[in-house]
Amino acid sequence: MTAARDADERTTAPAPTPTPRLPAKLAAHPSVQAVLARRAAGDVANPPPMIDAAWLRELCLAAGADDVAAVSLDHPDLAGEREYAQSALPGTRTLIAMAVRMNRDNCRSPARSVANQEFHQTDEQANHAARSVTQALQDAGYRALNPSVGFPQEMDRFPRERIWVVAHKTVAVAAGLGVMGLHRNVIHPKFGSFILLVTVLVDAEVSEYGQALDYNPCIDCKLCVAACPVGAIAKDGSFDGLACTTHNYREFMSGFTDWAQTVADSEDAADYRSRVSDSESASMWQSLSHPPGYKSGYCLAVCPAGEDVLGPYLDDRKSFMDTVLRPLQEKKETLYVLPGSHAQEYAQRRFPHKPVKEVTGGWHPPAKRAAPTGRETRTSSA
Q: Which of 102, 263, 313, 333 could bridge across to 194 with cysteines, CB 3.0–4.6 Å?
């Protein structure tokens, strides 16, 4: 990996692996004989117990990450991750957090197809980078694993327990890649909120671990509060996760369940079309045919934090709000809310030009409707 590592390998030769006692039939297999021959010749990967931090950083950056830091699984802030990490990769000792940048103006576009394409393409780039790092660690003799950046996740657990293998944001903050912002996105000190995160698990320690930032990159501008169309982010720091997922994840998980329930509950095509607009049907089709679309993400889009991002906001805050914040606030779009929720009241009051639609969010079945009158009730044998 490095000159120091190579020197260490020369001066500390690994002890030869003892030949195992094998049944005659197994010992005679060509693959078994090849493995044993390589071992006898010393042609096996014997990595040092500790990964060189400089080598690891170079590896991750070459794979496509824009920043990287490692954190021990024993870090006190990762107590809630240990069970899941060990379940995914028994023997995990270190979590490698990587950040991949997104293009800012794409994320800020009122055309959600542009923003969603940016999210998904960066997803793929991050997954590819993590897979490359995992493969390199494996080739070096370590055991390593890279969970998905986002979806797919463990849907057999939904909705009883968490569906993600690793909490990438929690790991990144513990590793020192950033600080969790008011909008519940990690803010990188240089790249700001315009990053996606991925984690690699490995069964070895690293020579140097990241350190938590000693300041918060958030500038407390509250633009994320002003941009959220369903009031999920409050000025006092509280966060309504259900309001966020009900709207933003309309075409994921629970939102799809709600749509499927609407299909099942509709009496016929005309009834369905009275409940779901043509544009909503087309959008759901698009999410089924391509990666699902996020409905918002505006909190990330308007965030000016980060050294590479902050300049235009400092130069002319009014222009920044006119060109970044207001196009998202003024966009006419359907907002999805739970009936009687704070999100519903907020959306109707704050954004009267945006149609508000009550949905179950998939968290519970739709209310039973009264039996039809004046027409024959259909049965399964009809």
A: 102
